[in-house]
Design brief:
Layout lengths: L2 E3 L5 E3 L3 E2 L14 H14 L3 E3 L8 H10 L8 E6 L6 H15 L4 E6 L7 H13 L3 E7 L3 H10 L4 E7 L6 H4 L2 H7 L3 E5 L11 H10 L3 H10 L4 E3 L6 H10 L6 H8 L3
Helix pairs in contact: 1-2, 1-10, 2-3, 3-4, 8-9, 9-10
The structure holds NADP nicotinamide-adenine-dinucleotide phosphate.
Length: 270
Amino acid sequence: MRAITLYDGTELPVMGLGTWAMGGRSRPDRSQDERALRALAAALTIGYTHIDTAEMYANGHTEELVGQAIRQVDRQQIFLTTKVRPPNLSYQRTHQSIEGSLRRLGVEQIDLFLIHWRDHTPLEETFRALNEAVQAGKVRYLGVSNFDLAELKQAQALSDTPIVTNQIPYSVTTRTYKQNGVIPYCQENGIVVTAYSPVEEGRLRAEGVLAEIAAAHQAAPYQIALAWLVQQPWVITVPMSHNPIHLQQNWDAAAITLTPEQMARLETLN
Ligand SMILES: NC(=O)c1ccc[n+]([C@@H]2O[C@H](COP(=O)([O-])OP(=O)(O)OC[C@H]3O[C@@H](n4cnc5c(N)ncnc54)[C@H](OP(=O)(O)O)[C@@H]3O)[C@@H](O)[C@H]2O)c1
């Protein structure tokens, strides 16, 4: 799997796994556990090593399922991203959030810890806790999510270690963060753009240019949408799927090379 090299030489694969809706949405739904665990096991077998989750997902239960799944493999091979939700951005609650995620994931260190999105809490307060957590070895890297340009620059100024990513909505049909300058800024400054909802939560329409280019590559249209993302500098993505066939397709999408002309045609899709 192709990867982006972080500031300390660590390789972050361009194709990761999203986990929103695994084991429930905003609340745990234990009737979905087996389905989620099967998907996680299938993804690990395929070769996914970057797993993206959050304390918000199923109110912490998704992290428990991720923790359960990765106990079957070598922890060193896995790169775990999780996030603190806005009601927990105060100094004390950020520390508590990190402890909660560590416990539910069953690990001693979180690889990448993100502010899920901002609220009224001054970022200074949150970063005081985040910097301490990195210092204490509980978190390896810091990042943000859904941050606009001003917020991203403020985060960079407050973080003792480089902000490694801004996780944002980005797909062939969603360009808000390109238009507001965040994506170009990340690419110019060596910040990974983690594209979420890369296939529009399964609502991306597999027609027109996408279908034409897919036919030329004997690929599925969703694979082309993912290939378009990860062929861009500093862009990685984390599609979610419960379906082993889709998991494999998404993984394989990173190996598709689009021509400059195909990239340009997809660029105009918006
Ligand atoms: N930071 C944030 O605020 C934020 C917000 C949203 C999402 N995220 C993260 O980003 C991840 C991905 O975003 P998302 O889950 O919103 O949406 P997504 O990955 O764009 O779409 C997931 C949906 O697409 C379907 N799908 C996936 N691959 C497919 C394929 N190859 N062919 C056909 N259908 C396919 C899945 O159904 P099947 O199960 O049937 O394959 C699922 O219903 C999340 O899981 C989460 O980890 C972060």
